[in-house]
Amino acid sequence: MKKLMFAPLLLSAVFATAGCNDADAKPEAKESVIRHGLIGSDFPILRASEVPATSTIVFLSGAVPGVSNPDAPKGSMEAYGDTETQTVSVLNRIDENLKSLGLTMGDVIKMQAFLVGDPAMDGKMDFAGFMRGYTQFFGTEAQPNLPSRSALQIAGLANPNYLVEIEVTAVRPE
């Protein structure tokens, strides 16, 4: 029980970061999150985000893809699509989940992407396909906010035809 009581205090301490001296840090107009871009790179992720202790942090469970091709054999890889297709499906599910909570993709500050090796790529993750899907949702003119992010290749997911699972953390604007 002590761990459960300590965790909120720890989160508050971690996220209650005093000011920032980075020239690239820009507070967003609709929220008080400070987003730190990568130094010397235009790769579409952040190196860090600062969240005030007074903000509400929302942790979403991992989302997996839905069927993208209902005409394909049920439960087949063709039913779920390639990495890009699955990434778009997963991010659409996350977007719907966020909207149901009164949030948007622009409120996402942290992402973990779990990518399974694609059989069509000799078991290597299709990072380029993941990025093609990801950049449809983040760093766009309509939604310029980027999250800090990790992308990891893993051995597998619950369904052997899933190539992508993504979990995100969002901050409710004050």
Describe how the helices and strands are arranged.
Elements: H1 2-15, E1 26-27, E2 34-37, E3 46-50, E4 56-59, H2 77-80, H3 83-100, E5 108-116, H4 127-134, E6 148-154, E7 164-172
Parallel strand pairs: 5-6
Antiparallel strand pairs: 1-2, 2-3, 4-7, 5-7
Helix pairs in contact: 3-4
Quick summary of this structure?
The protein is α+β, with helices and mostly antiparallel strands and 174 residues long. The protein contains 4 helices and 7 strands, in the order αββββααβαββ. This is Enamine deaminase RidA, house cleaning of reactive enamine intermediates, YjgF/YER057c/UK114 family.
Molecular structure report:
25% of the residues lie in helices and 23% in strands. The protein is globular. Helix 3 runs parallel beside helix 4. Strand 2 and strand 3 (46-50) form a beta hairpin. Mean pLDDT is 86; it is low at 1-31. The chain has a four-stranded mixed sheet with strand order 4-7-5-6, covered by helices on one side. The chain has a three-stranded antiparallel sheet with strand order 1-2-3, with no helix packed on it. It is α+β, with helices and mostly antiparallel strands. InterPro entries: RidA_CS, RutC-like_sf, YjgF/YER057c/UK114. Belongs to the RutC family.
